[in-house]
Automatic annotation (TrEMBL):
Family indicated by similarity: Belongs to the MHC class II family.
Species for this entry: Mus musculus (Mouse)
Membrane topology recorded in Swiss-Prot or TrEMBL: Single-pass type I membrane protein
GO biological process: adaptive immune response; antigen processing and presentation of exogenous peptide antigen via MHC class II
GO CC terms, sorted: cell surface; early endosome; Golgi apparatus; MHC class II protein complex; multivesicular body
Subcellular compartments: Membrane
InterPro entries noted in UniProt: Ig-like_dom (IPR007110), Ig-like_dom_sf (IPR036179), Ig-like_fold (IPR013783), Ig/MHC_CS (IPR003006), Ig_C1-set (IPR003597), MHC/Immunoglobulin (IPR050160), MHC_I/II-like_Ag-recog (IPR011162), MHC_II_a/b_N (IPR014745)
PROSITE patterns in the cross-refs: IG_LIKE, IG_MHC
Protein name (record): Histocompatibility 2, class II antigen A, beta 1
Signal peptide coordinates: 1-27
Database matches in Pfam families: C1-set (PF07654), MHC_II_beta (PF00969)
Domain of life: Eukaryota
């Protein structure tokens, strides 16, 4: 997934930089250097069930305009931000695009916690030791992500083995475990 950057940010940054760096804004004692920052913040509650999107516009370490998705519009934090907030709120396409950024920025870039899912098949109490345990996904044998314990002796001439498949669950996929052993008339297949 490519990182999505709000287009309003780029437009606002260019306009503010052009205005602030124009010769008319340079007074005799004003600074020639300044810092303009934009911060976009996504707050997730319960995965993507509840999302709050906040953007902050900052000039020389002072926040002057903020958009909060809970409020639904831009708000001036200082007098410097009043003209921008009023203008952005008066433009339906800007406000609509900013509101949509909750989905295009936050939801699009969300990465949930990394989880590992594995299917496990414990085969016990078999003799002789020769056994074949295989995993299949939608009828195709899986070899990547398969691991197994060594044969474990039970102490009564029988054995056991644990065979695992690390996988990422996807809707509609069918996993099966296929066990072949000389004591069986036909292989045992268990579907997950």
């Amino acid at each position: 997934m490519a990182l999505q950057i709000p287009s309003l940010l780029l437009s606002a940054a260019v306009v503010v930089l052009m205005v602030l760096s124009s010769p008319g804004t340079e007074g005799g004692d004003s600074e020639r250097h300044f810092v303009y920052q934009f911060m976009g913040e996504c707050y997730f509650t319960n995965g993507t069930q509840r999302i709050r999107y906040v953007t902050r516009y900052i000039y020389n370490r002072e926040e002057y305009v903020r958009y909060d998705s809970d409020v639904g519009e831009h708000r001036a934090v200082t007098e410097l931000g009043r003209p921008d907030a009023e203008y952005w709120n008066s433009q339906p396409e800007i406000l609509e695009r900013t509101r949509a950024e909750l989905d295009t920025v936050c939801r699009h870039n969300y990465e949930g916690p990394e989880t590992h899912t594995s299917l496990r098949r414990l085969v016990t109490d078999f003799y002789p030791a020769k056994i074949k345990v295989r995993w299949f996904r939608n009828g195709q044998e899986e070899t990547v992500g398969v691991s197994s314990t060594q044969l474990i002796r039970n102490g009564d001439w029988t054995f056991q083995v644990l065979v695992m498949l690390e996988m990422t669950p996807r809707r509609g996929e069918v996993y099966t475990c296929h066990v072949e052993h000389p004591s069986l008339k036909s292989p045992i297949t268990v579907e997950w």
